Amino acid sequence: MMPGNEQILVASLPTISRLALAYAPGPARLPTLALLGLDARLAGLLRHSREPMLAQLRLAWWRESLGRDQGEWPEGEPLLAALRSWNGEHKALTALVDGWEALTGPAPLPGEALAAMARGRGEAFAALARALGREAEAEAASRLGEQWGLADLAVRLGDPRERAEAAALAGAGKGPRPRLSRRLRPLLVLHALAHRRLDKGEEAAAFSPAALLKAMRLGLLGF
Fold first, then answer.
1. Which of 101, 103, 112, 150 has the most CB atoms lying inside 10 A of its own CB?
2. Using an 8 Å Cβ cutoff, are 150 and 114 in contact?
């Protein structure tokens, strides 16, 4: 992948995702960037689509593309180029597309839709674990990714009823944080900062000195 394309993808990430990516070691950086970039791209499709049907059509393109072998992909799309680093494991990421599509229903979204979105993120991180050769950690990555998804939704959703439902689901599903190997520690950072934002009730809580120190500890040491 060309360095310029990688820079484009990094620039597309939310600040917290860029912070988490900083803790991905060399072999894990591009696959992790591809996942975070896809998540950000799908979020943007929903955010910038005026009608749910338009969002669904755009999501369908990604679902179809991810369901194909990488040799069938068109050239010139930086995100697809980055996903080549998954060595064929990318097909599992259709679950992430399905998760985002669950948010295209009428407001207020039911808890089932929010839970489906979080499961999509969990399955995506389980797929990342397999793509990085950490099959034994796939279940832990799925659980942590799902918890991150709910906590992140609870802060970002615009409808107060949806935020309350997501927060309730996040609280009910919260458990001991598993240990993950170095290649998956960006997920530990995402999870910790999302829950800190949720606990404090403000976005800025993820960037306080205490939060950044915690992110550094998790990213470098894993606990």
1. 150
2. yes
- Beta-carbon contacts of residue 2 (< 8 Å; ≥ 6 apart): 81
The CB density around residue 24, as the number of other CB atoms within 10 Å, is 23
Ranges of each domain in the chain: 3-221
The rounded distance, in Å, linking the Cα atoms of 223 and 221 is: 6
d(CA 213, CA 211): 5
Phi, psi angle pair for 221, to nearest 5°: -110, -25
User: Tens digits of per-residue pLDDT, 26-59?
Assistant: 999 999 999 999 999 999 999 999 899 999 999 9
pLDDT in tens, 156-180: 999 999 999 999 999 887 777 888 9
What's the predicted TM-score (pTM) here? 0.95
Say how many C-beta atoms besides its own lie within 10 A of residue 129's C-beta.
24
Q: Which of 161, 150, 163 is nearest to 190 (CA)?
A: 150
By the 8 A CB rule, do 102 and 117 touch?
Answer: yes
Q: Which has the closest alpha carbon to 125: 105, 104, 95?
A: 95
| CA distance readout (Å), 46 to 60, 137, 167, 169 | 12, 30, 21, 22
**Rounded distance between C-alpha atoms, residue 39 and residue 66, angstroms:** 13
What CA–CA distance (Å, rounded) separates 156 from 173? 18
Distance of CA 34 to the CA centre of its chain: 10
Tokens of 51: 């009608």
